[in-house]
Amino acid sequence: xxxxxxxxxxxxxxxxxxxxxxxxxxxxxxxxxxxxxxxxxxxxxxxxxxxxxxxxxxxxxxxxxxxxxxxxxxxxxxxxxxxxxxxxxxxxxxxxxxxxxxxxxxxxxxxxxxxxxxxxxxxxxxxxxxxxxxxxxxxxxxxxxxxxxxxxxxxxxxxxxxxxxxxxxxxxxxxxxxxxxxxxxxxxxxxxxxxxxxxxxxxxxxxxxxxxxxxxxxxxxxxxxxxxxxxxxxxxxxxxxxxxxxxxxxxxxxxxxxxx
Length: 260
Description:
The protein is an alpha+beta fold. The chain has helices at 5-10, 25-32, 105-110, 122-136, 140-164, 170-174, 178-184, 191-195, 198-208, 212-259; strands at residues 18-19, 39-44, 49-56, 68-76, 82-90, 95-102.
């Protein structure tokens, strides 16, 4: 697994071992090297701001390998907030695993997904936060269940619109597989979803066949995929709102100039 310093601290679920081979040994040293105070960008969930963070550790001299339990601090340079991460290192396998952290992975992301409250009803928004919370605590299969519900909500929403506009019939929809449904509903689905319809099959596979560790290993990829879909819908919504506001103001301007 190749990952950045930010992804290790803020995205990676606890109890997920990361093997640091030749491809990402540099990240390993940035996380643990007491002689180098690594800086990276991220989100401070306590202050609800983007910030620069610095790694503070005394676990590993330059060029060494870390064995056993230890604590790493990450400091927010804008607010002096201190986040704590508890890790377990294994020098034989050159792996490192978080065994605890505060704030949690969920804390880093739950505040961010509130921006989707215009797109998702409260229950779906809660399910998204549950998915993140479960994954952050090492529950992979359960997190997939909630991500799939978000995906299915987007499909259901598009189906209602297409049905209303006569673009699809109930019979067509019901007899189709999910990949076919997505194609039929493409007029009201984000392009990223249409192009990456395999997300649904992976989520379903995770629920029925994959084990916890495999689901956890792929959770971040699927979560980001869902967020890209929602971001695309959010951009479209903002565009529509801007157009409607511009029309209203132009209409008012025309009315005012006619009366002058």
